[in-house]
Amino acid sequence: MTGTHTAAVLVLEDGRIFRGTAYGARGRTLGEVVFCTGMTGYQETLTDPSYHRQIVVQTAPQIGNTGWNDEDDESDRIWVAGYVVRDPARTPSNWRATRSLDDALREQGVVGIAGIDTRGLTRHIREHGAMRAGIFSGDALAPDDELVEQVLASPRMKGADLAGEVTTAKPYVVPAKGETRFRVAALDLGIKANTPRQLTRRGVEVHVLPASSDLDDILAVDPHGVFLSNGPGDPETQHHAIDLTRRVLERELPLFGICFGNQILGRALGLSTYKMRFGHRGVNIPVLDVATGRVAITSQNHGFALEGEPGQHFDSPFGKARVSHYCANDGTVEGLRCEEVPAFSVQYHPEAAAGPHDAALLFDDFVTLMEARHAQAQ
Ligand SMILES: NC(=O)CC[C@H](N)C(=O)O
């Protein structure tokens, strides 16, 4: 932080205004305002491509205490559209830090605001829903009603097709650690770095493919399994990925999806998705596994969800399937399992960057599915 405080304002589309001081870059940014309840992992949050076009409010009051390091990025840049905090660290301190969070935000041109009553703001979002917003400082400041107009002119998250804006331009391979046991084609809709890391640790060579890849690109990898990543935007717009998923299911290739990948598998199976009021973003969200009755505490970041009831069985074009997991807080769908093709998915983040490792076993389940399919094919 520099010594001088520059005025900044957070403007919501319903006319609610929060005044604070500029944090990170100065200027204007527009996006959907959402809150994240993680008490840790702000660097991973900021660099998660699923937050593209979202202004993130951190409910943890003190942010930036451990600065910014060169190891924890989940992608090659900060993706959030803007950042809202209460009390930014004045003296960051950590042995791995190479700069402050404020410096990282400035370097990457990310407009933020500090000194906000993030508790009041979060209660407002919980009640009225995630909505469009803008942060304005420096030359971008103008009379409030003009700022509200600018926010109202910005695009909504519902209907936003964003995977193409965050995906890799070219395919790349992340080699397995130790012996290569399996090859996976991972469709990058906004993949986080920790996902290939989790797979490679289990002897999987990961071929990360652009979102526009077709079935031939996937088959060219000669994969033992296909992975559908997390990603930003409205799953309803993902016609290409949904169609591709159907092609993969037809071939009975083992398939595992996370978050956006869960929504895409669900849509491929004939379920619909809807926009939640304020979504799930945090690192302690309880999920119940219907089959075992066990609860996992999970890392999450989503604003859309699949329609469905806990434990519901349904017929899909690929045979019987069920809602395998649901959220213990609000009963929303948190996972799917196909019973006649080797495919499953979860709405949460087993790669947990940041977050608890309760769900890491799901990567083992994916490997088991590939093993079983491989044994069958021999
Ligand atoms: N992390 C994700 O994959 C998010 C999925 C989707 N964009 C949502 O908001 O629900």
TrEMBL record:
<keyword id="KW-0315">Glutamine amidotransferase</keyword>
<feature type="binding site">
    <location>
        <position position="304"/>
    </location>
    <ligand>
        <name>L-glutamine</name>
    </ligand>
</feature>
<comment type="function">
    <text>Small subunit of the glutamine-dependent carbamoyl phosphate synthetase (CPSase). CPSase catalyzes the formation of carbamoyl phosphate from the ammonia moiety of glutamine, carbonate, and phosphate donated by ATP, constituting the first step of 2 biosynthetic pathways, one leading to arginine and/or urea and the other to pyrimidine nucleotides. The small subunit (glutamine amidotransferase) binds and cleaves glutamine to supply the large subunit with the substrate ammonia.</text>
</comment>
<comment type="similarity">
    <text>Belongs to the CarA family.</text>
</comment>
<feature type="binding site">
    <location>
        <position position="263"/>
    </location>
    <ligand>
        <name>L-glutamine</name>
    </ligand>
</feature>
<dbReference type="GO" id="GO:0004359">
    <property type="term" value="F:glutaminase activity"/>
</dbReference>
<keyword id="KW-0067">ATP-binding</keyword>
<dbReference type="InterPro" id="IPR029062">
    <property type="entry name" value="Class_I_gatase-like"/>
</dbReference>
<dbReference type="InterPro" id="IPR006274">
    <property type="entry name" value="CarbamoylP_synth_ssu"/>
</dbReference>
<feature type="binding site">
    <location>
        <position position="301"/>
    </location>
    <ligand>
        <name>L-glutamine</name>
    </ligand>
</feature>
<feature type="binding site">
    <location>
        <position position="260"/>
    </location>
    <ligand>
        <name>L-glutamine</name>
    </ligand>
</feature>
<feature type="region of interest" description="CPSase">
    <location>
        <begin position="1"/>
        <end position="182"/>
    </location>
</feature>
<dbReference type="GO" id="GO:0005524">
    <property type="term" value="F:ATP binding"/>
</dbReference>
<dbReference type="InterPro" id="IPR017926">
    <property type="entry name" value="GATASE"/>
</dbReference>
<feature type="active site">
    <location>
        <position position="351"/>
    </location>
</feature>
<keyword id="KW-0436">Ligase</keyword>
<feature type="binding site">
    <location>
        <position position="233"/>
    </location>
    <ligand>
        <name>L-glutamine</name>
    </ligand>
</feature>
<feature type="binding site">
    <location>
        <position position="303"/>
    </location>
    <ligand>
        <name>L-glutamine</name>
    </ligand>
</feature>
<dbReference type="GO" id="GO:0004088">
    <property type="term" value="F:carbamoyl-phosphate synthase (glutamine-hydrolyzing) activity"/>
</dbReference>
<keyword id="KW-0547">Nucleotide-binding</keyword>
<comment type="subunit">
    <text>Composed of two chains; the small (or glutamine) chain promotes the hydrolysis of glutamine to ammonia, which is used by the large (or ammonia) chain to synthesize carbamoyl phosphate. Tetramer of heterodimers (alpha,beta)4.</text>
</comment>
<comment type="pathway">
    <text>Pyrimidine metabolism; UMP biosynthesis via de novo pathway; (S)-dihydroorotate from bicarbonate: step 1/3.</text>
</comment>
<dbReference type="GO" id="GO:0006526">
    <property type="term" value="P:L-arginine biosynthetic process"/>
</dbReference>
<feature type="domain" description="Carbamoyl-phosphate synthase small subunit N-terminal">
    <location>
        <begin position="6"/>
        <end position="136"/>
    </location>
</feature>
<keyword id="KW-0665">Pyrimidine biosynthesis</keyword>
<dbReference type="InterPro" id="IPR035686">
    <property type="entry name" value="CPSase_GATase1"/>
</dbReference>
<feature type="binding site">
    <location>
        <position position="50"/>
    </location>
    <ligand>
        <name>L-glutamine</name>
    </ligand>
</feature>
<feature type="binding site">
    <location>
        <position position="231"/>
    </location>
    <ligand>
        <name>L-glutamine</name>
    </ligand>
</feature>
<feature type="active site" description="Nucleophile">
    <location>
        <position position="259"/>
    </location>
</feature>
<dbReference type="InterPro" id="IPR050472">
    <property type="entry name" value="Anth_synth/Amidotransfase"/>
</dbReference>
<protein>
    <recommendedName>
        <fullName>Carbamoyl phosphate synthase small chain</fullName>
        <ecNumber>6.3.5.5</ecNumber>
    </recommendedName>
</protein>
<dbReference type="GO" id="GO:0044205">
    <property type="term" value="P:'de novo' UMP biosynthetic process"/>
</dbReference>
<dbReference type="InterPro" id="IPR036480">
    <property type="entry name" value="CarbP_synth_ssu_N_sf"/>
</dbReference>
<feature type="active site">
    <location>
        <position position="349"/>
    </location>
</feature>
<dbReference type="Pfam" id="PF00988">
    <property type="entry name" value="CPSase_sm_chain"/>
</dbReference>
<dbReference type="Pfam" id="PF00117">
    <property type="entry name" value="GATase"/>
</dbReference>
<dbReference type="GO" id="GO:0006541">
    <property type="term" value="P:glutamine metabolic process"/>
</dbReference>
<comment type="pathway">
    <text>Amino-acid biosynthesis; L-arginine biosynthesis; carbamoyl phosphate from bicarbonate: step 1/1.</text>
</comment>
<keyword id="KW-0055">Arginine biosynthesis</keyword>
<dbReference type="InterPro" id="IPR002474">
    <property type="entry name" value="CarbamoylP_synth_ssu_N"/>
</dbReference>
<dbReference type="GO" id="GO:0006207">
    <property type="term" value="P:'de novo' pyrimidine nucleobase biosynthetic process"/>
</dbReference>
<keyword id="KW-0028">Amino-acid biosynthesis</keyword>
